[in-house]
Amino acid sequence: MTITASDDTQVEISMPVKPNTPSSGLPSKWYEFNLHGVSAFRVEASSGIATLFKDMFRPFLAEGLEHFDLTISEAFELLVDGAYGEAHGESDFFYNDHGVYIENPGVQIFVDEDGVRLHGKGELLVMAVPLIDRIMVQHGAAMLHAMTVDYKGHGILMPAWGGTGKTSTMSKLVKTPGFSFMGDDWTFLTRQSNLLGFAKPLFIKPYHRTLYPHLFAKTHKPLVPVALSKPISRLTTRIHPYITRFPHMASLIRKWSPEHMMVHPDQAFPNSPISAGAPLAASLFVERFEGDSIEPQFFEKDARWMTTKLIGNFFSELPRYSRLVMTTLGASGIIPIERSFGEKEDILLQALAGKPAFYLRIPRAFGPDQASDIIVETIKTVVKAAEIE
Asked: What is the pLDDT of residues 321-346, one digit of tens each?
C-alpha cells in the first residue's frame, strides 16, 4: 500500500489483508475475556501474544460471549486514504477517520461502530491497556493503577507510584483479620462507586523474600541479590520498548528474568480469600518523598484532589508505548484526548463523592519493610475513618 506523506514523498506500507481471516481460510480461534460484565474483549489464540493475555487476564477468561468491545489479532486491515502525522518526533503514523497505523512499534488501531480492533505482531499488552481503559470509561468504569483490598465487604483503594511498597503491604494486610486480596497493581472503579478486583500476577522481587518465604523455597530460577535489584529494574525499563516488538522473547524474559518472579495471587496467598469486588469505602494515595523530615506525613483530601492524582498516576505509570497509543489516537482525532480525560474525570468524581480520601507521604529513607508497616497502620486508620465495623 502506498501513502503520500505531507512532503509529497511516497511511503510504502504493507497492509494487505483483512483481520481475522487467516490464509488457510479456516475460522480463527479466540481467547475471550469478560471484565466484570462491564466490557469484553478477545485475543486471537494463534497470535504471539495470546499466552501473555491469558496470564495477565486469567480471572476474566470466558467462553461463548456474543459481543466484543475490543478484538486483538496480528493481521492488518487496509487503511484507505491515510494522512501523515508524527508522534513525539519519534514515530510516524498514518490515519483516516477510523483507523491509525503507528510505524514504530508497528500496530494498527481501528475504532468504529463495531468496536475497537488492535493489530500487530509485537507484545500488544502495553498497547491494549489504554484501549481497555477507554472502553471501560465508555461503559461507566475507570481503570486505575492501585492496590486494592476488601475489608469486611468494603473496598479500600490505594493508588501509589511504582516501588512505593504495594506488594509488601499486601503481604501483611492479607494476614490481618478482615482483609482480603483484590489486586496489587490494576483495578476498576465504577461510576456507582463499586471497586472491581483485578487478580493479575504479582511480581515478587528479591527483597520480598522474608514476606513470601514459601515462594522462594519453591523457586526454580536464581534471583539477583537485593543490592542489584534496582539497577536491573532500571535496565529492564530501558530495554522494554525494544523487547515488546518480539512477544515470544518478551514472554521468556518475563518468565526467566533474575529480577523477579511472576506468580498468581492464589500462589502468593494460598490460605487467603480473593475478592472480586466491593463497594468503595475510602481511598489513600501513597508516595515517597525526599526532604529533611524523617516522619511520615498524613493528610485528609477531597474527591477532586484524589481524582487528579488517580488520572495522573495511571497515565504516568503506563509504559512508553501505551502513552504513544493515547497521544496518537488523540492527535489523529480518533479518540480526542480532552474527551478521554474529561469522561474519566466525571466517572471518578462521582465514584469518590462522599468517600473519605487521604494522602500519605513516607520518607524515601525508609526501607520497603518499614514503609509497608506504616502503610498497614495507616490503612487501619482509614478503615476507622470510613466507619467500617
From this structure: 999 999 999 999 999 999 999 999 99
Its domain, for residue 95, covers 2-138
Return the bridge partners of 74, or none.
none
Q: Which residues pair with 190 in a beta bridge?
A: 141
Q: Are both 365 and 352 inside the same structural domain? A: yes
**Range from 3-7, 173-177, 379-383 carrying the lowest mean pLDDT:** 3-7
pLDDT, greater one: 300 or 9: 300
Q: What is the pTM of this model?
A: 0.83
**111 & 25 share domain:** yes
Tell me the per-residue pLDDT of 373-385, one tens digit each, with 9 for 90 and over.
999 999 999 999 9
**Residues 6 or more apart from 85 whose CB is under 8 A from it?**
92, 93, 94, 95, 328, 331, 332
Inter-residue contact 94 to 3 (CB < 8 Å): yes
> Mean pLDDT over residues 349-362, rounded?
97
> 100, 194, 90, 202: which is closest to 144 by C-alpha?
194
Greatest C-alpha distance within the chain: 69
pLDDT of residue 9: 41
Q: In sequence order, what DSSP letters do the residues of 290-335 get, joined into one string?
A: -SS--S-EEEEE-HHHHHHHHHHHHHHHS-HHHHHHHHHHHHHTSS
Spell out the residues 6+ positions from residue 155 whose beta carbon is closer than 8 angstroms to its own.
148, 149, 182, 194, 195, 277, 278, 279, 280, 281
Query: Cα separation of 269 and 215, whole Å?
Result: 10
Select from 186, 365, 233, 183 the least CA-distant residue to 288: 365
Per the structure, the count of domains in the chain is: 2
Percentage, residues of the chain above pLDDT 70: 81
Partners of 186 in the β-ladder:
145
The grid coordinates of residue 385 equal 475513618
Q: Is the pLDDT confidence value at 11 over 50? A: no
Give the three cell numbers for residue 201. 500476577
Residue with cell 473496598: 155
pLDDT band at 274 (very low <50, low <70, confident <90, very high): very high
Q: Which of 138, 155, 174 is the endpoint of a domain?
A: 138
Q: Give the whole-angstrom CA distance, residue 32 versus residue 323.
A: 25
Of 138, 166, 193, which residue constitutes the final position of a domain? 138
